Amino acid sequence: MALQQLPLRLRSLSSAIRHRAMPHLRLPTHRPASTVSETPALSSAGAAPPPPLPSSSPPTDPPSSSHDAPFPTASQIAAYDPVARARARKAQLPPSRYRFRPPRFDRGPLHPHRPPPASSPDSRLFYPGPFSLPRFAQTYTSTLRPDLMTLRYTHIPPATPRPATPQRLRAWDASSPYYANRPLRPPRGAPHLPLLAAPITYRNVPAVTRLTVSAVVREAADNSAYLHVAGMVLQAMTGTRAEVHFARKSQVAGRATFSQKAGKPIAVSVRVEGEAMWHLLGTLVEVVGPGIKEWRGMRGSSGDGAGNLGCGLSAEVVGAWPEVEVNYDRYPPKMIPGVDIIIHTTATNDRDARLLLSGTGLPFYGKHRN
Length: 370
Hints:
It is built from 9 helices and 7 strands. It is an alpha+beta fold. The strands form 2 sheets. It has a 5-stranded antiparallel β-sheet with strand order 2-3-1-6-5. A two-stranded parallel sheet has the order 4-7. The model is unreliable at 1-6 and 21-45 (pLDDT under 50).
């Protein structure tokens, strides 16, 4: 494309680039027409010199960077007041106009607006911390996790075909014509199928995910002070405000162990995760448990079959909790409730969950149920 066909701005820019890149090809500056002699002199060859060019200044080079721009004057600086301009605006902007609101759902990698990762403070799933490094967390990372993988590891060579999964539901026999075309029967002893145990690798080593601490306060139906004391005890143990649960339906004391009315507060619970989870588990295993003379640990059949184990603590044991014992006078002794602690793990069966917790020093007694 010829230079004359380009716009004026592009022509001046290309001229500036050519002059900077190839200074030896730069043309001499033309003098004004008034400085040219009016009487042309003949050259040695006898030919007249070329006529003078019309009076026109060469194109100026654009500034090479923003630093070449002129600095604002003192009057412009004094007149710049964004606060006064915002106050003079008739309709004020909402406070959340420039605030980033992450979307609630992730609609896929092709969507223009996706939620940030959980490590970002703008994420809805952001959890601040860690602010400390609990000893139980260090023990799990450095000792328990490699040991569990070694004990439960099953080597499967690459390209090994997976065995076919057999039918887990029971079929009907052909002893009666009424059994024809019936759906398969559930397993014996349970209405639902248990979870399949995947082979343990470095990707799915069992780990503790959270603790649920709850207390059922039967006396709260008649006296709300019991509920307040239970909430204070759970908050002292876990460092988290307790959540109140209400009764769904009414029942009479004649048919049940205690009476309740629908809509009345009946229990409190706390969900503990992260650092507080490791601190709470360490206090249970290392401080409260050994301090009880006849404490045998956790029952071996206390699991739900999906890797979640639970234990109950009486009111005397809760009163010996370090955070409760240090301010024991604040709680009426007869109002301190018993507490249930449920340990949630990523294991798919109770055997792996017990293997994980036994490595932390938590004992088990009685018959073990896998």
